[in-house]
Design a protein that fits this description.
Elements: H1 9-35, H2 39-63, H3 71-84, H4 86-93, H5 97-107, H6 115-129, H7 135-138, H8 140-164, H9 168-197, H10 208-232, H11 236-262, H12 267-295
């Protein structure tokens, strides 16, 4: 470290926190690499782990202190990566790298040794994580298809049935039968579509059977979540309200997952999908109510 404009005590404390963060991320990547079955993924994770360790060593020379990983953060991100995928866990963890880059950049004049860290934080993490090849992301299009159809079309169907039919259990049973049939139909369509395409957008092979399973499973899960209030409660207004809330929650969680894993904007995508689902539900609700009044149908 140079004597010119040496970091003050506050900066040194911040650098020590960054040193611990680099060690924490090193430990996360190291553990994920040990469990990686895909050789290419293992190589990517090992490279990132080595970079993070090198960063911590540079910072240690500046702070003059030893540091240890934050164990609770290691536990958190390792398990998130196991449950939701390595790409999601890694990119969620690395979302703070932009702040780290800016912080390092302000100290480069007094600590020239930090210059390589600035460059690394700017580019190499995203470059390496983009190289990760995960099956669940390869089939994300199939998941989107199942979720979009379930939340837009099925939400509308349930809203229409809510006042077209008397009794929440009747609505729930009709919705369940319709939803299961639609899920099987969607899976079959995705199977044929994927079989015709063969590869995904990056040219990697896709299994038509797996694509069909992802689509059908997503649709069935959504159907179960949306129908549940109608099978458990008797007030149609309460069922409709809970269903709309469930739709918003599912859209929020899925959009957040995709925005992190794929590096896409969150709020615009969330707003568009929510507006479509609620809009279709509102129109269908009106049609169902109007049909019952005009046709005088009683069940």
């Amino acid at each position: 470290m140079t004597d010119r404009g040496a970091p003050n005590d506050a900066a040194l404390r911040a650098l020590y926190a960054a040193q611990r963060n680099e060690l924490t991320e090193h430990e996360v990547y190291r553990r994920l690499a040990l469990r990686a079955k895909n050789p290419a993924n293992r190589e990517v994770l090992e490279r990132i782990a080595a970079d993070e360790l090198a960063h911590s060593e540079v910072l240690a020379k500046t702070t003059g202190r030893k540091a240890a990983p934050v164990r609770r953060r290691v536990f958190k991100y390792v398990w998130l990566s196991r449950l939701l995928g390595v790409t999601f866990g890694v990119k969620l963890m690395e979302r703070g790298e932009l702040h780290a880059e800016r912080f390092y950049r302000t100290l480069v004049p007094s600590v020239p040794e930090l210059a390589p860290l600035v460059e690394d934080e700017r580019r190499h993490e995203s470059e390496l994580t983009d190289m990760l090849d995960e099956e669940r992301l390869r089939y994300i299009g199939s998941v989107v298809l199942g979720l979009n159809d379930a939340l837009v079309e099925f939400t509308g169907a349930l809203a229409g049935l809510t006042f077209a039919l008397p009794g929440t259990r009747l609505v729930g049973m009709a919705g369940l039968v319709t939803g299961i049939a639609a899920a099987l139909s969607m899976g079959a369509s995705e199977y044929l579509s994927t079989k015709a395409e063969s590869d995904d957008a990056e040219g990697r092979p896709k299994s038509p059977f797996k694509a069909a399973v992802y689509t059908s499973a997503t649709y069935l899960f959504s159907v179960a979540a949306l129908v549940a209030p109608y099978l458990l409660l008797r007030n149609p207004y309460a069922c409709l309200g809970i269903m709309i809330g469930t739709v918003a929650l599912l859209i929020f969680l899925f959009t957040y997952y995709v925005s992190v894993a794929k590096g896409l904007p969150f709020w615009r995508r969330f707003g568009e999908m929510l507006a479509l689902s609620i809009g279709v539900a509102g129109v269908s609700f009106g049609i169902g109510t109007l049909a019952r009044l005009v046709l005088g149908v009683e069940v």
